[in-house]
Write a structure and sequence with these properties.
It is a single chain. Helix content is 51%, strand content 13%. It is an alpha+beta fold. It has three domains: 146 residues, Orthogonal Bundle (Butyryl-Coa Dehydrogenase, subunit A, domain 1); 109 residues, Butyryl-CoA Dehydrogenase, subunit A, domain 2, CATH 2.40.110; 163 residues, Butyryl-CoA Dehydrogenase, subunit A, domain 3, CATH 1.20.140. The strands form three sheets. The chain has a four-stranded mixed beta sheet with strand order 1-4-5-8. A four-stranded antiparallel beta sheet has the order 2-3-7-6, with no helix packed on it. A two-stranded antiparallel sheet has the order 9-10.
Length: 440
């Protein structure tokens, strides 16, 4: 068989080509963008369309210029995407001279994320982990040079970052870490194990949580938030391989009296819990946005394929067993997109109105809303990616397209950022508080 060519957008990782050239070419990034744009044209505002299109054009040029096959180590790409300020657009960074005005905010982050996820979903997931590292440093940099330098390097993609919350025996119970954060006059010493931290083996910066006394009943009130610079001789980093995301480097980190000087303590003893919770809305909305992007990515592949693939004398979309399933997910994904857009726009408006310091009741409502979005989005993405791949038959589950990347990532979305049951727990607590406040 003739060796597949890059010009045909046939992936190098392919063991055997089972999808005809003309169908693979029809599912090119350019055509998938065109299909998504046709779906989005009625629901996006002009500034959103403009930015969405700008990121798409960059991705198309980048793929062509570098002959991207989507089987490579993508971590070097972060530098070039960061140079265009495409690592994150969730907020502005005036402290380092980066402010795009109305082209920043959670809504624009959704646009950036959707365009980049269509380009390469595993790459986009890894960049999202850097964003989780950026947010707490921005909130607590206090104009310290080392923190500002970290923000600059992370936002511009010079280096990846990670956030270290989860532990082997402290998954959902993030409030009570076993990692010891021993405070002294000159800094904090970290001892403990963190795991499942995206990018950790590739990162320069890590935001790490610990507590002074894990055995204390109020250990959550003794937490601190610390910025660790890697590599560090006192930190052993191993890769935790997750087959569903084979190109993403996820780490297990063992800290052995790792010293964090005062200038890198983001939230001191007793304030770490607040630092952890202030990031919940953007973190969980970031995952909900990823869920939406993955669902659209799978839908684009399936819709194009089902309109081209013929079986029993006609395109398979005309068979009710295929077409009706396809349009059912079309409705679900479109409606979820509308919900995401409404949340993002409302969040951006609230941040501007209140200068970034949201009042308590509104903050509580947004936390509950973000959990709702993450909860339903993860469920939708998992079922959509699987069922849409199933509509494509063997073409949906082999390695000829990025469908297996989308299936793989969607399989872990109900676990990352707080498992399904934790989102239900957060929502149930919010509902009780809402009931109490409305019946005073």
């Amino acid at each position: 068989m003739e060796e597949p060519t890059k010009e045909k957008v046939i992936y190098k990782r392919m063991q055997a080509q089972t999808i005809p050239d003309e169908v693979l070419e029809a599912m090119s990034l350019k055509n998938r963008y065109a299909f998504i744009n046709a779906n989005m044209m009625s629901i996006l505002k002009d500034p959103e369309k403009d930015f969405f299109g700008k990121v798409q054009r960059f991705c198309l040029k980048y793929e062509k210029k570098n002959s991207i096959m989507h089987d490579e180590d993508f971590y070097p790409w972060i530098n070039e995407f960061g140079a265009e300020h495409y690592v994150t657009r969730s907020q502005s960074f005036p402290e380092i001279g980066i402010d795009h005005g109305d082209k920043d905010g959670l809504t624009m982050e959704f646009m950036r994320c959707l365009a980049v996820d269509m380009f390469d979903p595993q790459f986009n997931m890894a960049m999202g982990a850097s964003v989780l590292c950026i947010n707490p440093i921005k909130h607590h940099h206090q104009d310290r040079e080392v923190c500002l330098q970290a923000i600059k390097e992370l936002v511009t993609g010079e280096v990846p970052g990670c956030i270290c919350i989860t532990e082997p025996l402290r998954g959902s119970d993030a409030n009570h870490p076993e990692t010891v954060a021993r405070r002294t006059d000159d800094g904090t010493y970290l001892t403990g194990v963190k795991c499942y931290n995206t990018n950790a083996p590739k990162s320069k910066y890590a935001v790490v949580y610990g507590t002074e006394d894990p055995s204390a009943k109020d250990s959550d009130m003794k937490m601190s938030q610390n910025l660790v610079i890697l590599p560090d001789d006192t930190v052993t980093i191993e890769r935790t391989f997750i087959p569903w995301v084979p190109r993403v480097w996820i780490g297990k980190e063992t800290f052995n009296e790792t010293f964090v000087p005062n200038e890198r303590i983001l939230c001191d003893v007793g304030k770490g819990k607040d630092g952890l919770f202030e990031g919940l809305v953007p973190e969980r909305m970031g995952i909900a946005i990823l869920d939406c992007c993955e669902a659209w990515g799978a839908f684009a592949f399936a819709a194009i394929y089902c309109n081209l693939r013929k079986q029993m004398g006609q395109e398979i979309i005309k068979h009710q067993g295929v077409g009706f399933v396809l349009v059912d997910y079309w409705a679900q994904i479109n409606n979820f997109t509308l919900a995401i857009l409404q949340f993002c726009r409302s969040y951006d408006e609230a941040i501007i109105k209140y200068g970034g310091e949201l009042p308590g009741p509104l903050a509580m409502a947004l936390v509950a809303g973000a959990s709702q979005m993450k909860y339903q989005g993860a469920s939708l993405a998992e079922r959509a990616c699987y069922d849409l791949a199933n509509l494509m038959g063997g073409a949906g589950v082999n390695d000829n397209t990025m469908m297996q990347d989308l299936i793989g990532i969607s399989r872990i979305q109900e676990v990352v950022g707080g498992a399904r049951q934790i989102q239900q727990y957060v929502m149930s607590m919010a509902l009780r508080k809402l009931w109490s406040s409305s019946n005073r």
